[in-house]
Amino acid sequence: MSDTLSYLLMAWSDPQLLMLTALGTFAGIYIGAIPGLSVTMAVSILVSFTFSWDVNDALALIVGIFIGGVYGGSRSAILLNIPGAPSSVATAFDGYPLAQQGEAGRAIGLSTVMSVVGGIVGTIMLASAAPLIGELALRFAPRDYFLVAAIGLLLVGSLAEGSLAKGIFAAGLGAVIGLVGMDPVTAQGRFTLGQVELMGGIHYVVLMIGLFGVAEAFYQLHNLDSPVVRQKVDKILPSFAMVLKFLPLSIRTSIIGVIVGVLPGVGGDIAALMAYDHAKRTVKNPSRPFGKGAYEGLVAPETANSAAVGGAYVPMLTLGMPGDAVTAVIIGALVVHGLNPGPMLMVENPHIFYFTVGNLLLANVFLMIFGLMGIKLFAKFVEMPKAVLIPLILVLCVVGTYSINSSMTEVYWMLGFGVLGYLLKIFGFQMGPIILGAILGPLMDTSYRQAMSSAGDNPVELLQGLVTSPLSLILSAAVVLILLGNTPLLKKLKSKLSPASARG
Amino acid sequence: MFKSLLTGAALGLSALTMALPAHAEYPERSIQAVIPWGAGGATDNVMRSLTPYVEKELGGKFILNNRPGGTAVIGSTHVMQQRPNGYTVLLGAENPQLYKVLKLADFDYADFYPVNIIGQNVVVIAANADAPFNNMAELMAAAKANPDTLRMGSTGAGGLPSTVSAMINAVDELKVREVTFGGDGPGITALMGKHIDFMPLSLAAARELVRSGKLKALAVFATEETPELPGVEPITKSLPAIAEYLPWGPFWGAFVHKDTPDDVKQKLVDAYAKAVANPEFQGFLKNFGAQSLNLNGAEAEEFLKRWQSVTTWSMYKAKAIEISPDSVGIAKP
């Protein structure tokens, strides 16, 4: 027990580890805020950089960057309507409208506090129930991943503002873009037009930077001369009462974050969108309508994507399996450092587990400090003249895209998507569903084919599996309920059951 | 006359000495090393561990660059397209040796110069610890009793599992449902969750799970037991005929453009040979569950040729590929 405690407090008591965690968190916030510069990238560079370091030092820096980076994406989402990472796509839905109403400072303050709440809930769940949650992740058969992807795609219903038809079209477009590249089973090219560069597919971050960064920059040219919104920077810290009010919602969305974060192949990006959808469905009286600057719309995705970090660590620490791209790199780092990540890690090197837990908590403390620092200055970004801001955004988009795979081709694609996104925006299409399709389309494709080949290409066997396994049954029921809930069918049914209330 | 000759000779000499160091100083700037697989994968791990030792031997700096995608086609093509001056190195795995027969690309490692074949992975056939079969013979029997019902984890055409199953099918019959995953990781997760029945895996990926008792190893893909997995039978015990393809394993190597100047090639070859032999790196390979090869020159070319020939012809025999290896210039083993 005392061992456990000393491992937990290791990062807190060692000045060097403390400094490295702080440095990582600080750097992570800014890496995360720039579209294209991702946590995965930063961590993989660090792995070779920290090769000769002590393993704890390397892990402390990585944890800091991870926590800071996931949060950092919300900065640019709120201030510029350009999510710094796919996991902050949902943050922009209500964060940017808030900034437009002069509440950028408050939005950043709230998202910081809520990220910390999510991060702490995620860490507590990691610390208290890691083996259990890890076991739950193993229960997910290919058909269950298929159902999760289906549930995810149904989010189009709440992401598509205005026209559902346009939303479905956008998601379909995203899914097709996501399918470009080598067929996962036969290794044949799909939609590659015979180009080698397209064999690897189109990275969805390339798509995201184009659709959100470049398209948004073009779109803002429309109101180049509109007066800048003066930012109110007096009430930045959310009041305690406000945090308390959002606590039930944030706990629910944090749990969504952890569970989605545990599943390999689905991470903080989907968790944040699902949490946003959950908030939209369950919060009856939001502070403002969703999409117009509801605080709830900010709380949900920010708690979920931070909680997903704790979730991603679960399979990594309990099984040696990555929960997402970042933990995959961390596993590599452990291998390089001569530790053997696997189920025996917790037995043979128990300090890694508790050290990570303690370190995650510490990074969240630093996140609170650094996140709330300099908000007033950041809020001024929104007041910056468009003529300065827009070229700056375009430069960042190009640099960010190039840095993903050092590929100029991807930069051209990104610019192409920017133009496409601009045109779609003019015609009232939403960008969110396109990203959703691009992330979930490939997942749905592979998991469907896995499920089908597991069932010996026999659809009857597959359908039987969907209703006989308890987990699949729950997920299937969820798909059906969401579908019913989004169609007039349920309303009709309800009005039949209670004609009195329908009339009233 | 004599004087002018002397000045001429002096001038010539000085020109020579001026020209020599410029060449001798390779590397005079940092070298771009392309890893055609993602960060955190097996190839990435091996290369990131090896590179510091190579840097020490060569006295230069490497910039490691992951360019993943398309079964390493993208990264390998990139290196082929760079100037052949030794400043772009490909740190890859076995995949290009199958590009021609899988029609992924029209080149293979014969179009590169092999600086070093670093090492190879041992392959094990792994199953969930609760599976009803305990060795290869029992697995084969179960598959024959109910053909096309067992589920094998795979990583797609040209991946390790499908190649291994092709080799087994070339000498015997293993009719199973092939479930394709995005990589070892998701496949192993499905194996632990019992969503698939077995999966051929690299020892590096499977060892920790076998050691912890989550998975069990049915056989090692070799002619004798491996010291890392004592008590696990070699596959030849159940399938003696497969011996003609063994030893076989996915490998890692460092490559440069074929037209790189010879002295640069030699410098790289020397540096890599010393770096791979470094006891610390050897320790890493052992801990990683891989075998060191450290081949260069003719030995490396021979290794690459044999690997390609054995693999493609067994795949052809098992009807895993449509085109005959003959038609793309791969001789029979």
TrEMBL record, chain B:
Residues 1-24 form the signal peptide. The keyword Signal applies. It comes from the Bacteria. This is Tripartite tricarboxylate transporter substrate binding protein. Pfam families: TctC (PF03401). Belongs to the UPF0065 (bug) family. InterPro entries: BUG (IPR005064), Bug_dom1 (IPR042100). Keywords: Signal.
